[in-house]
From TrEMBL:
GO molecular-function term, one example from the UniProt record: ATP binding
Species annotation: Dongia soli
Keyword Zinc-finger appears in the UniProt entry: no
Gene3D superfamilies xrefs: P-loop containing nucleotide triphosphate hydrolases (3.40.50.300)
Stored Pfam families: ABC_tran (PF00005), BCA_ABC_TP_C (PF12399)
Annotated ABC transporter domain residues: 7-248
UniProt key word Transport: yes
Keyword annotations of the record: ATP-binding, Nucleotide-binding, Transport
InterPro entries: AAA+_ATPase, ABC_AA/LPS_Transport, ABC_transporter-like_ATP-bd, BCA_ABC_TP_C, P-loop_NTPase
Name recorded for this polypeptide: ABC transporter ATP-binding protein
Coiled coil: none
Recorded superkingdom: Bacteria
Length: 248
């Protein structure tokens, strides 16, 4: 059966002065897929993410999530509906342990009070679900380590865990592999695939071999416009896509 769209944009546009950083972009992201947004620098990918999460308001066009027009909602409401961007809540507290970081994210999600020092028992109630999340991202062996001491790749995995604490239906990942070495890339790619088993993922990523391996569908932006869309085999042979990449 064809997957239903979870998110769609119609002619999404934002102009800064006279310059359209995102220009009439219509995307369809299907439920349960890994969808990549790629394109050369300055193509409008980050701006697109900012529009989807309402960090920026579009000049025109609309955003539909699960059949509902969410264009005029505020950022917090969009997160509450289940669209969460990885860095949104990914402030990692370096002096707290890895487990404590996830516990705080869970507490926040469940609306628990922040003055958790008052009740050790209330705090402990989050230990088990926090541990489950750490196992989910392969960090269970690091639970007691201060987060600041995590190697870079593991820190990014912790960001994913704190994001998952919000239980999003749709995860927006902004360059999840940036700055990683080979081993961390492989680990993060496996994690993205794992997370996508019951969630939809939209990611901006420059590592095209991983994009090719992970993505069900790829949208290519260039100069604010949607240039091509399809699986990797089709977009990588598209002359316009080749030109956009070579031309920068
Ligand atoms: P990408 O993420 O694909 O590299 P961006 O979305 O960051 O591209 O930027 C797209 C274009 O929009 C760039 O030319 C950038 O300079 C411009 N841009 C982004 N944000 C603003 C802004 N707030 N004001 C003016 N121009 C902006």
């Amino acid at each position: 059966m064809e997957a239903e769209p979870i998110l769609a944009t119609r002619n999404l546009t934002i102009a800064f002065g006279g310059f359209r950083a995102v220009d009439g972009v219509s995307l369809i992201i299907k439920q349960g897929t890994i969808h990549a947004l790629i394109g050369p620098n300055g193509a409008g990918k980050t701006t697109c993410f900012n529009l989807l999460t309402k960090f920026l308001a579009p000049t025109s066009g609309s955003i539909i999530y699960k059949g509902r027009d969410i264009t005029s909602l505020r950022a917090a409401d969009i997160a509450r509906l289940g669209i969460v961007r990885s860095f949104q809540i990914s402030a990692v507290f370096p002096h707290l342990t890895v487990l404590e970081n996830v516990r705080i994210a869970l507490q926040r999600q469940r609306g628990a009070s922040f003055d958790f020092w008052r009740s050790e028992r209330a705090l402990k109630a989050f230990d088990k679900p926090a541990m489950v999340l750490l196992e989910d991202v392969g960090l269970e062996d690091f639970a007691g380590l201060p987060a600041g001491q995590l190697p870079y790749g593991r820190k990014r995995a912790l960001e994913v865990a704190t994001t998952l604490a919000l239980d999003p239906d749709m995860l927006l990942l902004d360059e999840p592999l940036a700055g990683m070495g080979h081993e961390d890339i492989q680990r993060m790619a496996a994690l993205i695939r794992h997370v996508a088993a019951n969630r939809t993922i939209l990611m901006v990523e420059h590592n095209l071999s991983v994009v090719a391996a992970l993505s069900d569908r790829i949208s290519v932006l260039a100069r604010g416009r949607l240039l091509a869309e399809g699986d990797y085999a089709s977009i990588s042979q598209d002359p316009q896509v080749i030109e956009a990449y070579l031309g920068t």
